[in-house]
Design a protein that fits this description.
Distance between the termini: 29 Å
Shape: globular
Order of helices and strands: HHHEHHEEHHH
Number of helices: 8
Largest sheet: 3 strands, antiparallel
Strand content: 5-15%
Helix content: 55-70%
Number of strands: 3
Strand order of the largest sheet: 1-3-2
């Protein structure tokens, strides 16, 4: 769905809105990389390895259209473009940090190395709270 249509779409809950904006194979990782500061397109592409130029471009354009990422073009030869988080995009930092912590905990759980880490994650939000 084009980003401009997202505002008009009817969502069941706020999580759907969040996923509509930052969901996708590469968007969360792009955003996490931009937390450390501006990045050039080539830097992002090298970091992800398997992403095609088209896919990365589309995801960056959607994030830019949603006001999450700022694209700055420098009037130089050769042209230089940098991507950074907007002020509003920076508000996703706690969400991305929580995703990172959960991912680390899940990886440890799957690898069988962390029982304590799993308990810490479930203590934050119990299944009963998730339903509410």
């Amino acid at each position: 769905m084009p980003p401009r249509d997202q505002a008009r779409r009817s969502y069941g809950c706020a999580v759907e809105v969040t996923l509509a904006v930052m969901g996708g194979k590469w968007k969360p990782v792009i955003l996490y990389q931009l937390l450390d500061g501006p990045r050039r397109f080539g830097e992002l592409r090298k970091h992800f390895g398997g992403v095609s130029q088209r896919s990365l471009t589309l995801q960056l354009r959607e994030l830019e259209a949603d006001g999450i990422v700022h694209r700055q073009v420098f009037a130089e030869v050769p042209p230089r473009v940098e991507y950074s988080l907007t002020e509003y995009g920076c508000t996703l930092a706690p969400v991305l940090d929580a995703m990172k912590a959960w991912g680390q905990s899940f990886r440890e759980r799957v690898e069988g190395t962390a029982v304590a880490g799993t308990a810490a994650v479930t203590a934050v939000r119990s299944p009963a709270e998730a339903v509410a």
